[in-house]
Amino acid sequence: MVKQSEHNSGIAQDKLVTELLDSGVSNIELRREYGNSTISEFDRLSKFRMKKRINYFYSIPDDLFINKHLNLNILQYVSEAQRLGASYIKMNLGDFDESNDTFIDYLLTIIPSGIQLNVENDQTESNSDIEKLSLFFEKFEGRNQKVGFVNDLGNWIFTDQDAITATNRLLKYTRFVHLKGYVLDQDNKPKTVSFVDGKLNWRLLLEKFSKDLPIALEYPADDVSLQADIQTLISEDL
Hints:
alpha/beta; eight-stranded mixed β-sheet; 37% helix; globular
C-alpha cells in the first residue's frame, strides 16, 4: 500500500519492488492484485528475492472459507507463493463454520513447511470479529503452527472494536503485525494515515508483541515519509 499511488499510475509490481529495494527495505509484502500472476512475473520477483536476500510476504485478497467450505484456490495460492519464494501467505477468514473441523488436517497438509498461512482482520465486520477469529485459531492449538494471525492494528477502528482488547485476546496467535494509524473525518469516519500522524496508541500496542515479530507499514506514503517512519520505529527500539 505504501506504493499504491505508483501502482494506480500503471507502474508494474516488479518495478515497485526495485524501488523499495533501492530505499533499503528488506521485507516486502507483495499484493496479488498488483501483479499479473504470470510465471514470468513470479520468476522475476523470485530472482530479486534471491539476489537481494529479501523476504516476501504474499497478500491475497480472497477468503479462506467460502460458503462454509475451504476455498480450494488455496492450492493455487500456495503454488504461487512457492514460485515467488514467499515465506508467508495472508488471506481473510471468510465464511468460517466453527462446527466443522474437517478442514484442519487438509489445510495443514497442503501448506509446505517453509510457508506460514496468516489470517488478517480487515475493515469488514465479517472478517474481523474477535470471537470468530479466536474460535478459528483455537482449532490449531496443539497442532503444527503453520497458521497464525496478522494483527492489522489500524483496522479495528473500522469495525468499532478496541485495538487493545483485540490485541490482548489474539496475542498468542499473532505472527505478523500491520502498522498504520487513523484519523476521524468531519463525519466521524476513520481514514487511514501513517501511524506517526494518527490517533492509534501504537507505542502501547507494539510493546505487547515479541521483538522478533515482523512489522509491516501499510498506508499511502512517499519515499521520504516512509524512510522517516522507519527511522521512528528504529529509534523507539520496541
